[in-house]
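Might I ask for a little of your time on a matter of protein folding? The record follows directly beneath this note:
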Amino acid sequence: MKNLFQAYRILFLFLAFFSINIYAQEQSLASQSSSSLSNTAVAPIKKSIILFTQKSSATAFNYGKYKADGVFWGHMLYNGISSDTAMNSWAADVENRVSNGEYFFGRLEFDWGWKWMIDFMNDPGSYWAKDLNGNDILWSGNIHNGQAHSWQSHHGPEFLEWLKYQVDRIDFAPITHLMIDSQTSASRTLHWLGGDFSVHSMNNFRAYLKEKYSTSELSALGINDIDSFNYRNFLLDEGYTLNSYKQQALSIDGNIPLYADFVYFHRQALNEVMDELFEYIDTKKPGIAIGATTNLIEPRGFVFSNRQTYLAGEFFHDHNVSTSPPFKPMLHYKAAEALDKTLIYFPYPGAFRALYDRSAPRQARGWIAQAYAMGSVFTIPENIWLGSGYPTWSPGWQVYGDLYTFIHDNSALLDDYQALSNVGLAYSVYASLLESGMDGSNTARQTLRNLVEDNISFDLKIFGDPDRPLAPTVEDLALYDVIVHDSDKQYFTAEQNAILTTAGSATNVVSIDNSSEIKQLLSWKIDVLRNDVVSNNLISALPRISSKPEAPYVLHLLNRKYNSSEDEAQTHNNISVKISSATFPNTITEATLHRPNKPSINLPLETDNSGMTTLTIGTFDAFWGIIELGHTGSLSTNEERLAKQIINIYPNPSNEFVTLSGLNDANNEVSVLDIYGKVVNKFSNIGNKSVINTRNLASGIYIIKIMKDHTLIGIKKLIVKH
């Protein structure tokens, strides 16, 4: 019965792989209009894509060294996009690149395009976010046409028109993809910089409250005349100062009157702007791939639209020597995979600035490896902007070129793969609104770290905040052995907690505090050992599986220890990996370890009577390795032989016998395996038109494996019906 349950669980995992996460479904319903956007079909971004961060690095020489596919930060001109002559010159360069087969991600802007905004708007001064004192919230303070560079308010009719104007200008060039950066608008200033109390914000917030609340409800909130209500004056009358507002606004639960409404109002307005922008983009460049800097785990701003083909961003990175590769961005990777969207990103300047100060560029090899191993894309670190007062840093292709070549050469082991997990992590969006950071709550990040350092493979299950109380279904949660939660569960709504409670009847819902219980409940586990002692904190082993059943399984090895004195990965000796028999759907038959700039090696593997498979690694001294796992369901790697032999079986379904056709010669060996990978029958000296008896097989699904000279030449599925 246990084996049958496990077989169904594996089947459910495959079905889950093809399902759209419930969060994406709900967000799509919340954000898409009734336009034709839902009918737009755009090819997904491959997980092996290699992109220069910016155009200055994308020289012909560097394209060869990095095996790059294109440019990600495809800015328009910093000055003068209103000039057709200047834009035509920029467009000609883009056209030349695209005609050479390069991708060019054209980039629309918020903060970087501040000069464009000033030139476009009739009254740009009314589109700067204002603090509680009524002053512009400065960004850089640089001056253009008499206006100081400040944070933008995304309220008011001209703001959307300005974004549409950018679409019109970028339409000069044949860009291949579109990226929208970076929503640095009022949705963030209200938390950290004193609010957005600009005239457009105040007018729109008044309308928001009037629509949401009745007259009696408004009166209970202290608003007796909504038509003359001004939130800034309201807070000043309540005795708030700029400093007291700033201190309390870091958390949505800072006890500022009407503050939660103010937060959700800003977020809703930005989402509406983005939805209208997406609609307009499709009138100019129908079906183009669109990405935006969407921070799914820190929802202070634009949340998500299913019109997005991919996600983009800049993230904070741990960069100390004891935490490498970093844990901080991993929640972002997991959130992107929960939506089945490829994430493309680069760290904020502080991360590489720290490496520059320590002359330690190779530490970032672990960062790049981790991103790609978890299904995300880390753009090439060349000509890196380190921030004011620092030079632009080019570590050189010798530092990272072999790593990106490795990604290019192993694209088949990256594209179309997703994490194979038997644990779901219940994540609270609201918890991050209670804290001032941008990378989820401290509690969630610690929970993630505990799971990673135990080599427990998990998916993120997103529970939204009270404004958007999204949650996975009970059926979705039931696909996992364990649903793990932490103390952030206290911030779930009553309905969300009810889902967890109900899910507990179908699976195990356990606190992260009970780590030993979690491991006991797992139907499968992968462990890394050093000298036969479990040492999961040294190397992460990340299993991934393709949507194509015949594709090899993949196990990424990430070295979690960095040698700062040599700016290299630490060396670990006598390393082995143990894989439970129930981890993958089929039995592992071979293992090949691939590493950057090193020859691939076949790994010895040994399976004991319990089905536990041990892979002997030996010395592991790289930042990253990919173990390619052949299995009983794999297609032959001998493509030439397969091309010559098109093998068929008939009749299928069968009740008495099947005939094999398409074999070039005799002396083939045929094995019949059940759904657990167990050999139930074996035949020798099989040739073309040979007949195999199925009369003694129970009704069900079987795998026919055809071997020739110890080489797999064919895999066929057989259905037996009696």
User: Anything to note?
Assistant: The chain is about 30% helix and 25% strand. The first strand starts at residue 51 and ends at 54.
